[in-house]
## 1
Amino acid sequence: AQKVTQAQTEISVVEKEDVTLDCVYETRDTTYYLFWYKQPPSGELVFLIRRNSFDEQNEISGRYSWNFQKSTSSFNFTITASQVVDSAVYFCALSANQAGTALIFGKGTTLSVSS
Amino acid sequence: EAQVTQNPRYLITVTGKKLTVTCSQNMNHEYMSWYRQDPGLGLRQIYYSMNVEVTDKGDVPEGYKVSRKEKRNFPLILESPSPNQTSLYFCASSSYRVSRGDTQYFGPGTRLTVL
């Protein structure tokens, strides 16, 4: 079965704090892809990153970084020095052959950053 | 600008009144999908299309129809809407199957309320 678990439903931080959003996935496929999307209060879904199962290198993009660990089936997302504009719902998603044509989304983590 | 557009963005209607939500992409993508987003349930795929005139059911197709007469357009049709179809709907497109790792790009969403 394909599954994505985001155990943190809501996180609240104060500006400039670092925050890590957890994502744990399940799949039996050896080739799969992991994604993070951001949904700001305006409602659209914004693509942040894609990772394939063969590339375990961590990725950094500005204040964002991602830690992919196959050993623990996790693909965690860290925001460094959070800002109010980071307030959003963040979704982790999985695609794999057995998942067919759909992205399998986690339930999302709502991040609130206060000033 | 590469984008997926949806119209309308907001719609309030009554039970049984047929409606169509349009979706268009300008990236020449072959794959297009419709998802619905509900609190506590995350995003679930309704229908997808692999190319013109090729469509198939996703996880929650009941009560919906789609068509793909042109590559760029993928309308979602609710022939007799019911209150349980009140939801936030997203159209998405990608160059090829997400199971091959392609990124799905999402439209801005359509918030539908069925009274």
## 2
Amino acid sequence: DTGVSQDPRHKITKRGQNVTFRCDPISEHNRLYWYRQTLGQGPEFLTYFQNEAQLEKSRLLSDRFSAERPKGSFSTLEIQRTEQGDSAMYLCASSPSGRAVETQYFGPGTRLLVL
Amino acid sequence: SQQGEEDPQALSIQEGENATMNCSYKTSINNLQWYRQNSGRGLVHLILIRSNEREKHSGRLRVTLDTSKKSSSLLITASRAADTASYFCATAPRTGTASKLTFGTGTRLQVTL
């Protein structure tokens, strides 16, 4: 399977705990994106990498959130001191480089539930 | 924040009928894309239309774009039960960094036998 993969698919945690999600993009894609989707809403942009450089972060990405893409391949998204409001689906997407934003290829998502 | 609204929020039709969904957006765009999401899953890209295009077809899908009204429509012809899903429009900005897509709120389509 050469699509975008995410791990874990589901995560249940208690408030105050830290969680980390992983995304493996399509291998030849330089761009990697993280989105958050709450129930009944469309995905909202969190952050974007071009290779290993984090080029844009949304205001939604509070200081409890950190994302990395150390070697320009897989990426991790960490949430520290989780809150119940962090419960959502976290989606990763990748795309090849280009002048404009073209098709993004999404992974299956990680569903987080904070109790 | 969401770029715009989709209309209707929910749509229920019978198999074989056509389904039309509308999307409105707020800012200048480079392109507009439609994605499908089955319940609890990731998004699947359906079709992309550029700002200088007015209509595009792909199989049973027909997309129109009116940049003067900042709106788009997605038509699914001869619907099937397998088309049951949520459909989202997403816009790519004309200016600024070539980064994020901004999604609408989605239309939930139910196709019954």
